[in-house]
């Protein structure tokens, strides 16, 4: 029981944009990379909060296809940091019944060793069902849709699919995680009001909550606040309020 939260209406899937690490560090006279390091505690407290809520799906934006534009030192730090975080935390996540998965392009500039640890972690936790924690890593919504279009085109060329049978379900089936439900709630920290190429297809009807809290300061209480706000909203999906039909 969490005060003010209706346990029967907890979102099925919450997606978070973990933003503001650099500014958090700058405010303290630290290097940007120290902000990323401080974000680890925020992430794992938020995961605990998700488990407290009985949340089934949580997705976090860890590295975008555009983040390669950052200075080489920061990119290198983020690759190593995400790898070591995985190695340090995966047994604990596994014991808690968390299935860890990754969405994003597997290849390109992502070091081979990091890819291997990603695959090992997915295999280690594959049978867990309490919560699925998905890392969007080397992820871009446009890249995901481009990859989907490419694989659909290949199926059409191989005559395994008819072009005139392509519908929304076909596209959804070709995304990185076809079994993942669309996020009900998207939370972005650090006072930025944009989507930054995150879950473009999947967020079509998500509720958005923006908070000024910088990611390293984010804790499970902030997640609970977001769920309370979510529960006060009225999702219409293009229809009309139930009860207001005449
Ligand atoms: C988010 O924090 C983490 C990543 C994008 C990897 P930022 O590094 O974007 O922090 P700000 O937005 O510069 O403060
Ligand atoms: C989005 O944050 C990506 C992640 C949090 C990993 P950015 O900080 O990269 O987004 P922009 O550049 O402010 O749009
Ligand atoms: Mg940022």
Task: Describe the overall structure.
- With 246 residues, this protein is α/β, with parallel strands linked by helices.
- The chain has a single domain (10-139, 183-231), classed as Decaprenyl diphosphate synthase-like (Undecaprenyl pyrophosphate synthetase), CATH 3.40.1180.10.
- Helix content is 41%, strand content 15%.
- Strands 3-4-2-1-5-6 form a 6-stranded parallel sheet, sandwiched between helices.
- Helix 1 (21-27) crosses helix 2, helix 2 runs parallel beside helix 3 (72-95) and helix 3 runs parallel beside helix 4.
- The mean pLDDT is 97.
- The site of one 3-methylbut-3-enyl trihydrogen diphosphate (IPE) has 10 residues, from helix 1.
- The site of one 3-methylbut-3-enyl trihydrogen diphosphate has 10 residues, from helix 1.
The stretches of 5 or more residues where confidence is low (pLDDT under 50) are none
Q: How are helices and strands ordered from N to C?
A: EHHEHEHEHHEEH
Specify the helix fraction band: 40-55%
**Mean of pLDDT:** 97
Backbone shape: globular
CATH architecture: 3-Layer(aba) Sandwich
Tell me the radius of gyration: 19 Å
How many strands appear in the DSSP assignment?
A: 6
CATH class: Alpha Beta
Bound molecules: 3-methylbut-3-enyl trihydrogen diphosphate, magnesium ion
Count of DSSP helices? 7
CATH homologous superfamily caption: Decaprenyl diphosphate synthase-like
């Amino acid at each position: 029981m969490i005060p003010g939260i209706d346990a029967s209406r907890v979102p099925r899937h919450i997606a978070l944009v973990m933003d503001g690490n650099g500014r958090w560090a700058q405010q303290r006279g630290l290097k940007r990379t120290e902000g990323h390091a401080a974000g680890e505690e925020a992430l794992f407290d938020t995961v605990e909060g998700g488990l407290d809520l009985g949340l089934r799906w949580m997705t976090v934006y860890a590295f975008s296809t555009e983040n390669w534009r950052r200075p080489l030192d920061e990119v290198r730090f983020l690759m190593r940091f995400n790898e070591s975080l995985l190695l340090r935390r995966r047994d604990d996540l596994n014991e808690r019944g968390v299935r860890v998965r990754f969405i994003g392009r597997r290849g390109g500039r992502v070091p081979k060793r990091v890819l291997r640890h990603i695959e090992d972690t997915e295999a280690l936790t594959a049978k867990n069902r309490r919560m699925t924690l998905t890392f969007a890593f080397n992820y871009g919504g446009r890249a995901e849709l481009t990859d989907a279009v490419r694989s659909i085109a290949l199926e059409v060329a191989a005559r395994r699919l008819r072009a005139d049978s392509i519908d929304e379900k076909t596209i959804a089936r070709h995304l990185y995680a076809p079994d993942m439900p669309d996020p009900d709630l998207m939370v972005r920290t650090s006072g930025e009001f944009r989507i930054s190429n995150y879950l473009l297809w999947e967020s079509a009807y998500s509720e958005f909550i923006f908070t000024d809290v910088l990611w390293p300061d984010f804790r499970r209480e902030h997640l609970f606040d977001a769920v309370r706000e979510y529960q006060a909203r009225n999702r219409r999906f293009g229809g009309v309020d139930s009860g207001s039909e005449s």
